[in-house]
Amino acid sequence: MIRASLLPAAGLLLLAAAGTAHADGSGSATLDAVKARGQLVCGVEGSTPGFSIPDSQGVYRGLDVDGCKAVAAAILGDSSKVKYVPLTSTNRFTALQAAEIDVLIRETTWTMGREASLGAEFAGINFYDGTGFIVKTAQGIKSAKELDGASVCVQPGTSTELAIADYFRQAKLKFTPILIDNYPELQAAFISGRCDVLSNDSSALATFRATQAKPADFMLLPEIISKEPLGPMVRKGDDKWFDIIRWTYFAQLIAEEHGLTSATIDAAATSQEPEVRRFLGLEGDLGKALGLDNKWAYNAIKQVGNAAEIWDRNMTPLGVPRGINALWNKGGLMYAPPMR
Amino acid sequence: MAATHVVAEGPPVTAARDRPPADLVGPVAWLRRNLFNSWWSSAISILLGYLLVRWAWGLIDWAFVNAVWTLPATANPLDLAMPCRKLEGAGACWAMVGDKWRFILFGRYPYDMQWRPALCVVLFIALYGASANRLFWRKELLWIWIATLTVIAVLMWGGVLGMGFVPQDQWGGLPITLILATFGLAFAFPLAVAVALGRRSREMPVVRVLCVGYVELIRGVPLISLLFMASVMFPLFMPEGLNPDKLLRAQIAIILFAAAYLAEVVRAGLQALPKGQYEAADALGLSYWQKTRTIILPQALRMVIPPLVNTFIGFFKDTSLVLIIGIFDLLTAGKVAMADPVWSGFSTEIYIVVALIYFGFCYAMSSYSRGLEKQFGKAKNR
User: Fold this and answer.
1) Taking Cα atoms as reference points, which of A100, A104, A102 lies closest to residue A43?
2) H or E stretch at B226
3) A-side interface with B, Cβ within 8 Å?
4) N or C: where does chain B have the smaller number of CB atoms within 10 Å of the terminal CB?
5) How many domains are there within chain B?
6) What residues of chain B lie within 8 A of the CB of A212, using their CB?
7) Do B142 and B238 share a domain, yes or no?
């Protein structure tokens, strides 16, 4: 009898506790933590050109870094309030699981296995990459199908290594892998002729080509043999936080679609276009619904720029063509749902 | 060899000569005795000499004659490396070091505040210098250490005296290497002495078993796995958001690891001390701590200076293993500097610079220890 009457009472207490928790916070533990800290903690790779690497003055730059900055601008109104945590491919997921970082933006390939088993999920795709090959133009190779018997320079333990093994087996071609862990040494080995082909993500190969003294001496083969969609990752179970990361990224695409750049966004305040007005927080309460200020998207674009600006800042100087990473209406795969 | 040796040291052939003949002493004689004493010895000497000269010639050509020393004035950062690329490996690209040296030395520390870590490096070196001088070996040295390390902490963190606050995740380069090595060895050494004494203790079996267990456990795993434990496993056991800093975790792992090795070195010294010393101290009626402090340790530690310094040097270099857990020490900063696409393909120059810095510190340590041995040995060799 006593037990029966106690149970509902305990249930009520629990409900009350949950209610007060709701009243205090935004409903997202991660968002509350970021706001209380006044800083976003962002896991990055830390040494890949174009994605995240410190320049000669020690300032982090890159596509992933700009992703962190946009989130910080959207939440805190200041893109500089980010703490970057460089992570290796081994400790990145632990860092996310142990809440050492708020979000992982570290060239991580979206795969089913990762999403199903790691307790974390992908909030979008900020870069469509894929494994490719680069050869010396003088070799006269025009296609990956001509690579029978080639020696291929590749970093051991990467998804690239698995992808080329699959590719050559499927195409019934023979190849000799030349495995070198250190990427600068791998590049040097390819230049000095220790292998016929260098294989890596196509973005990295384009960078390699663009930084050579004579880029025309090297040629990217047309085949892209694997899908490597890279994106930001968050812990499962915090859906509001997931929404913020996802929509901050969509905001960059929507801004590009509407031609809003960091330079023109202030002038856009007079625009009568409904979606632009909602974007700027002049109409509706979309920002509030995310648990943020209504100016969240404005801050992100004003301080960091739209998707095209971010690309031009980080990838264009490296000679990486935008290709499938362009907007959907310009022949690419980048597509954001409407903001309404 | 033995025969000529005897001749060389033998008495002069005639009393009229006041100098030994030129073919028995002097550089020519030395060459003949050691490098050209038979036809195959001459052949090997000439071959090796030729290779050495050629190699040295190539090195000078590469490192000095053909090298690019200055950065070109260009608006496009990607063109910075063009003069170096045009050499196609015929010369060193020191311009790269010119572009990157501040990043290698200070990592991601805010650029306009880098005088602070620079001053810290100077303070560290001054501290080592002062501690090396026997004139300073008194109690006050401890206070000097505490004061200097406090100043270093204030300089690195800032946040007072008008200096901006710089969180640990932005520290990097040489100061990190010196911090890890200095704190690592400074804390590991007393711990090691305690563990070594504990392991030799007869009255306290529990302490002895604990000390043996600690040493064997730590020595049984590589430093890399300890660092991995500290950086990957440890956070999983902590409540969410309550994590000690990554640098601190790595520092503790290094202290624990170094202490286990140093403890074994110290124990070797304790065991090498003649039993008579222990018995004489007991006969004087000294307590355990008096005996240990005034009789046992001074003699035991003096005996193990070479292996101690050997371990110190090893650990100074082992701090570079924090590379794998993403801490920006000197070597990591160098590696990240190499990854810059502007300078892709150039890495030898940075490795050479980093190696020279490591060599400077390690060589200073080993030549100091040689001097120390000589000084301490004087009493014994008299």
Assistant:
1) A104
2) helix B223-228
3) 33, 46-50, 53-60, 83-88, 90-91, 94-95, 97-100, 182-185, 187-188, 191, 207-208, 210-213, 317-318
4) C
5) 2
6) 85, 345
7) yes
The answer to whether residue B223 sits within a structural domain is yes
* Domain contains B136: yes
Residue B83, in any domain of the structure: no
Domain contains B348? yes
Predicted confidence at residue B283, as pLDDT, reads 92
B16 and B153 both lie in a single domain: no
Which CATH number is A29-128+229-323's, of 3.50.50.60, 3.40.190.10, 3.30.70.270, 2.60.120.650? 3.40.190.10
CA distance A254 to chain B (A): 30
Of B189, B371, B169, the closest CA to residue B297 belongs to B189
Q: Does ipTM surpass 0.85 in this model?
A: no
Cβ-contact A84, A72 below 8 angstroms: no
Judged against a pLDDT cut of 90, whether residue B234 lies above it is answered with: no
CATH number belonging to domain A131-226 = 3.40.190.10
| Tens-place pLDDT, residues A22-39 | 445 678 899 999 999 999
Say yes or no for a CB contact (<8 Å) between B107 and A54: yes
**CA–CA min distance B251, chain A (Å):** 17
| Geometric angle at alpha carbon A111, from A107 and A114, rounded to 5° | 90
Residues 242-281 of B with CB under 8 A from A: 243, 246
